Amino acid sequence: MQVRTSLSTTKEPCVIALGNFDGVHLGHRRLLEHGLGQAVRLGVGLSVLIFEPHPLKVLFPERELKLLSTTQERLLYLETIGVQTVYLLPFTREMANTSPEHFVERILLPLGVIHVVVGFNYSFGAQGRGNPELLQALGKTNGFGVSVLQAQTIGGRVISSSSIRKALLHGDIRLAYTLLGRPPCVRGIVVHGEERGRQLGYPTANILPEEDYLIPKRGVYAVWAYLDGKRVLGMMNIGMKPTFHDLYTTIVEVHFFNFSGDLYESEIMVQIVERLRDERKFNGINELLMQLKKDRVKAELILLETLL
Q: Tens digit of pLDDT for each residue in 2-44?
């Protein structure tokens, strides 16, 4: 898959899917699969246009975005689906002020678009004035087709990035898994921590996620990750270490079972399978250690049953 950070100097006929694709959930996949079908029918490749940073980061810098995926994760998922080219274009104030008509004229047409695929709630152009109906009208004027996919559902629930965010913030991993079509994850760089876990016999990898990345509800989770090319099981704590601190920043730390390698400064992606319990304050280290033993037993049972 090609990733381009500027418009192509030559027109290459393509079908293009438009959207943020945060999380690349099941709804996004259905839209992209429709795009692939159109691309096959027309004998061209499927491209995706994404703006970086997320437009809300530029328009409302004071807001917390709570994104479901990093840019690299999105690119990985898009490649596995079969996207041929991703245009990762910079989103600026100038771009934010571009009218819907100029967006089509200056962005889509130079890409050689012959068909566009969008979701029912897609908006584009200055102040979001462009909508799917306007895009269809502009398509007729400029000679390209437009497919608009309606809200996608599974089990009677609408699939959306906002629904998945809500599920994760409430610790509902199973619902997030259902809507994503895969386990939710936490991705980041392993950094040095207090090394308290090592002193207790439970060494942990302290993960520093990217800015604006959503962190699930505080608590303990059964997880796994690929480390040194092998799948390693573990348990993850998201919390503020209430047993040791009255006030502490929220951290993400993972204890991997039967692993002793050095992960510092490496980037890892931790797959979340199930929430085990809430975060709690213990009456001393012995009580904490007893609970950690129970957590490990429960996590191993869940992971072995789920993954085997």
A: 999 998 778 889 999 999 999 999 999 999 999 999 999 999 9
3-state secondary structure of 95: helix
Q: Let me know: does 8 contact 111? Beta carbons within 8 Å.
A: yes
β 113-119/14-18 pair status: parallel
Angle between helices 71-81 and 26-42 (to 10 degrees): 50
Q: Return the number of other C-beta atoms located less than 10 Å from residue 61's C-beta.
A: 9
Residue in the block written with tokens 């503020």: 240
Quick check: bond before 55 cis, omega within 30? no
* Model pLDDT for residues 149-187, shown as the tens digit of each residue: 999 999 999 999 999 999 999 999 999 999 999 999 999
Mean pLDDT of the chain: 93
- Residue 290: CB atoms within 10 Å: 11
What's the full length of the chain, in residues?
308
- Which token pair is 69? 């995926």
User: Is 55 exposed, middle or buried, given 0-12, 13-18 or 19+ CB atoms closer than 10 A?
Assistant: middle
Q: Residue 93 burial by CB count (10 A; 0-12/13-18/19+): exposed, middle or buried?
A: exposed
H helices, E strands: number in the chain = 10, 14
What structural domains does the chain harbor? Answer: 2-157 (3.40.50.620), 184-307 (2.40.30.30)
pLDDT at 246: 65
User: The pTM is what?
Assistant: 0.91
- Specify the higher pLDDT residue, 144 or 196: 144
Q: Name 74's Cβ contacts closer than 8 Å, sequence gap at least 6.
A: 21, 22, 24, 50
